[in-house]
Specification:
Helices cover 0% and strands 48% of the residues. It is mainly β and 212 residues long. It has one domain.
Length: 212
Amino acid sequence: MVLAFAAACGGQESPATDKPAPPTGTEAAPRELPQGGEPVTLDPADFTNQVDNPYWPMAPGSRWVYRESDAEGAKLRVEVTVTSKKKMIMGIDALVVHDVVSEDGQLVEDTDDWYAQDSDGNVWYLGEDTKEYEHGKVKSTEGSWEAGVDGAQAGIILPADPMPGMKYRQEYYEGEAEDAGEILSLDAKATVPYGAFDHLLQTKDRRRSSPT
């Protein structure tokens, strides 16, 4: 799956300088992006109480609606809403984002995703509670996971400073949720019913069963 994000904030142009200031030696090294099933240790004190990454700011009350097709060609409606709810995961106050997928007005999937942003600006994916429906009844909860439970590991959904070629784990729960992502471009273009956009962040999402 290939996705594109539009930067949602503007800013003033910074004055040019002849050369960057030399490092002071006090800057913290950027966090390495997690890969595969490698364990990661997260410090709750290193996380903020909001998600404001410019490529996907998650202000409570924000809502997005998408149209997409599944592997069988069915036309789906996906509604994503940022709630004001929080869930404590590994000592981190994660933001709850509610996803509802429907087909011809019938509920197909209902999911709560849990996100949190660290002080560098990386947006972490800490798990999901997902339910698939058939004829109005829960058919499966496969794909649900929570970081820190039963070996599940948090992943990155959006790096703080994305660059083409970056690869990273999005989620890891062995045999259940092993998606990965890659940054393809910072200057992609797309035209959708809402309008035409450029200077987009384009990513490629890969499921475990897909070729590397």
